[in-house]
Specification:
The complex is a heterodimer. Chain A is mostly beta strands. In chain A, 9% of the residues lie in helices and 55% in strands. The longest helix of chain A has 22 residues. The N terminus of chain A is likely disordered. Chain B is mainly alpha-helical. The chains are: A mainly beta, B mainly alpha. The interface between A and B is large, with 97 and 49 residues.
Chain lengths: 434, 74
């Protein structure tokens, strides 16, 4: 997250992506012998929420297959995010004032509106590379790393995957390990858990507010977390048309999982906000996921259906069904409808607000993303193969999140306010493969 | 109830894999499975972009691949 440089980063990103694409194409034309073993997958994506966040993202993925069937892949991702994000506080029948993350400025939210922090502006660069090496006829080993950097966040990771083919390559067993180190350096410092947000006064923050901040030390420093993932899978060819995969994943997160920019409202018995405090989440999380996918070849297309069940010790259980149905319109074009449905239960520390009369809990978050919610995506993709073998595709999708009330009361003035507004987004993407 | 659902899911999945040795095809029957669009990771760029969006907006990630960390998502 960044507080300045509100220039045309989206334009710069688009330019950079185009430059990369153009450069690659130019190379392909002038020196095809060098790149004949390389394949490039490129994409530009726009994600835009109504009145909230928008994201532009560019991807260039280059893959080289060597003579011994080993495969090298390198992927560059650039994205820029801007717009407003729910800060976690409840709507009120009056105007509310919040501190920006820097602590040096404030913003106001109109009566009846869900408080959104419009400070967010971020650019992220990610580089990932992997090498897959076949050996001993039926084994494959893959090793990879990834680095991701944004204004207040850095992530470093390494991963490895071992695969073994059995029964004339009809069955493949796989086991993978990934270790990720993430470091966060929040704008304005890391807030003390459940401490009050101090709102700078319009006139005198220069001398008084900053002094106050130093005295209380409510926001200070950075933090980090590690994520250890294990993934075990079985892939099975069922018959000439169908194959199936089943994965079990274990993910152990240790460290700072709190969102330093999210807050909770502390309300009185009439639902009126008395204080705003920073959230606090447990410093560990253990997740289990069960993933099943089937692909079925039609005479003129492919059916792709997957289901994921995930559960964790934050008591978040989720179900995800994802399906893509590809219909070939001709030998060189297709359309592909996409439907996804997602449902999650609330974390055990989720609450939309805190009661002034109750003791402060150890952990609390009003972030709707760890609350009860359903979401769906519907989309359509059209793809075409050109005469030179290059492929392009375009996809348009609609994504809607519907947060739910997980059984919390809405006392007093909150009764008539929408505490669980839907989030609606469009996704537009263009792909080019050569 | 939720635990039961997990067990049922696992049993159903395992029962489908139970006959692995008798399933499958001969090498010359792979004409359809060998198509690019039949690869499990086909459209990898799309899947990666989707993973980033849903990782940022929902509480669950991974399953198909590593859940990972990787962004301070707003």
């Amino acid at each position: 997250m960044q507080l300045s440089h509100k220039g045309s980063i989206a334009a710069a990103l688009a330019g950079a992506t185009c430059a990369l694409l153009g450069q690659s194409q130019a190379h392909a034309e002038t020196d095809s012998s060098v790149l004949k073993d390389w394949k490039f997958d490129t994409a530009i994506l726009y994600y835009g929420e109504t009145d909230r966040v928008s994201l532009a993202e560019g991807v260039v993925s280059a893959t080289k297959t060597n003579s011994d069937d080993s495969i090298f892949n390198v992927k560059l991702v650039l994205d820029t995010l801007t717009g407003a994000s729910a800060n976690g506080a409840v709507a009120q029948p009056t105007v509310q004032t919040f501190s920006r993350p820097s602590g040096k400025d404030s913003y106001q939210v109109a009566a009846g509106d869900t408080p959104l922090d419009d400070t967010f502006h971020d650019t992220r660069v990610q580089v990932a590379a992997s090498w897959m090496q076949p050996f001993a006829d039926t084994w494959r080993g893959t090793a990879g790393f990834n680095v991701s950097r944004e204004y207040d966040y850095m992530s470093l990771g390494v991963n490895g995957l071992l695969e073994k083919d059995l029964f004339q390559r009809n069955t493949t067993l796989s086991a993978g390990l990934s270790y990720q180190f993430d470091s966060i350096d929040p704008v304005g410092g890391k807030p003390t858990p459940l401490s009050s947000m101090m709102v700078p006064a319009d006139d005198d923050y220069d001398d008084e507010f900053e002094g106050e901040d130093d005295d209380h030390g409510a926001k200070n420093g950075s933090d980090d977390k590690t994520t250890l993932d294990m993934l075990f899978g079985v892939t099975q060819v069922i018959n000439r048309r169908m194959l199936m995969q089943f994965n079990y994943g274990l993910s152990i997160v240790d460290g700072y999982t709190t969102d330093p920019y999210k807050v909770l409202s502390v309300i009185n018995t009439n639902g009126v906000t008395q204080d705003i405090v920073y959230e606090n989440r447990p410093d560990s999380r253990t997740k289990h996921s069960f993933f099943w996918q089937t692909k079925y070849a039609l005479d003129n297309g492919v059916v792709d259906v997957s289901y994921r069940y995930a559960t964790d010790d934050w008591e978040i259980d989720s179900h995800t069904i994802d399906s893509r149905l590809r219909f070939n319109l001709s030998g060189n074009s297709y359309i592909q409808p996409h439907i996804r449905y997602y449902q999650q239960s609330a974390a055990d520390f989720y609450q939309p607000y805190l009661n002034q009369s109750a003791d402060l809990p150890m952990y609390a978050s009003a972030d709707y993303r760890v609350g009860e919610m359903t979401a769906y995506t519907v989309g359509l993709k059209y793809g075409r193969t050109l005469e030179n073998g290059h492929e392009w595709a375009v996809r348009a999708e609609y994504y809607q999140q519907d947060p739910k009330n997980a059984g919390f009361e809405q006392p007093g003035v909150l009764a008539d306010l929408d505490l669980y507004p839907s989030v609606k987004a469009v996704i537009l993407q263009f792909n080019y493969h050569f | 109830m939720k635990r039961k659902l997990v067990y049922v899911s696992v049993i159903v999945a395992l029962s489908q894999l139970g006959g692995c040795a008798s399933l499958g095809v001969q090498p010359w029957e792979r004409d359809l499975l060998a198509k690019d669009e039949m690869a499990l990771g086909a459209e990898g760029v799309d899947l990666g972009l989707d993973d980033h969006i849903y990782f940022s907006k929902e509480a669950t990630s991974g399953g198909r691949s590593f859940a990972g960390g990787g962004c301070g998502c707003n």
